[in-house]
Write a structure and sequence with these properties.
about 220 residues, Arc Repressor Mutant, subunit A, Tetracycline Repressor, domain 2, mainly alpha
Length: about 220
């Protein structure tokens, strides 16, 4: 890791602590620079053009699920019974991390106090996930692995099945204890989803032409 990468990680770590402890408004560029042991607060702007950009980078860095989405192109060719559990595990394991509790405490107040800032950030993050899933489902239909459907709704339906389990992990431990384990929930959710989209016997789905692969650039649309 080079000096720039080290410095950027140092700033992100300090910013996370400041934002988590004081909120977006309470944490200042000066306090973040001091926590990061920088000689000048101006150094932060070399890596992050605005405080909002720094806040978004802090969120993305501390959510492993979003890191999976950042380099998701290799998943496109893998079958749904492998990829969907991988996505579900990354999502639910992120909710189980102690740091996720702090992320929730960081994001919820900001969403109420600064909807003009928090909502666009949330839209971009959610859009990245739904954008990948929509592209992935489109590609699986083209390969003949899933039956044609509105993949925008399909992506939302799949993530929707995971949300109650994530909420139970984050904020409702009594429901989590009495409910299924993450692996049990993933197996059930993926099974329901794939049974509903199974290709009917004797039906030939449209297949992608060999010379027209899905562009990895589409993975990050959303």
């Amino acid at each position: 890791m080079g000096e720039d990468a080290d410095r950027r990680s140092q700033i992100l770590a300090a910013a996370f602590e400041q934002f988590a402890d004081h909120g977006f408004r309470g944490a200042t560029i000066k306090s973040i620079a001091r926590a990061a042991r920088l000689q000048s607060p101006a150094l932060i702007y070399w890596y992050f053009p605005t405080k909002e950009a720094l806040f978004q980078s802090v969120i993305e860095k501390n959510l492993p699920f979003l890191r999976l989405m950042t380099d998701a192109a290799p998943l496109l060719e893998r079958p749904p019974d492998e990829v969907l559990p991988t996505i579900a595990r990354a999502y639910l394991s992120t909710a189980a991390l102690p740091i996720a509790q702090r992320m929730v405490r960081l994001l919820v107040p900001e969403a109420m106090l600064r909807p003009d800032m928090a909502q666009p950030i949330a839209s971009r993050l959610i859009g990245r996930v739904l954008g990948f899933l929509t592209t992935y489902l489109d590609h699986q239909i083209a390969l003949g692995r899933l039956r044609p459907h509105d993949t925008r709704s399909g992506a939302r339906a799949f993530m929707g099945m995971l949300i109650p389990q994530a909420i139970a992990t984050l904020a409702l431990p009594e429901i989590k204890v009495s409910g299924p384990t993450n692996e049990e929930h993933i197996a059930t959710a993926v099974g329901i989803f794939l049974r509903g989209l199974a290709v009917e016997p004797g039906v030939i789905s449209a297949r992608a032409a060999p010379d027209q692969p899905v562009s990895p650039d589409r993975v990050h649309q959303g």
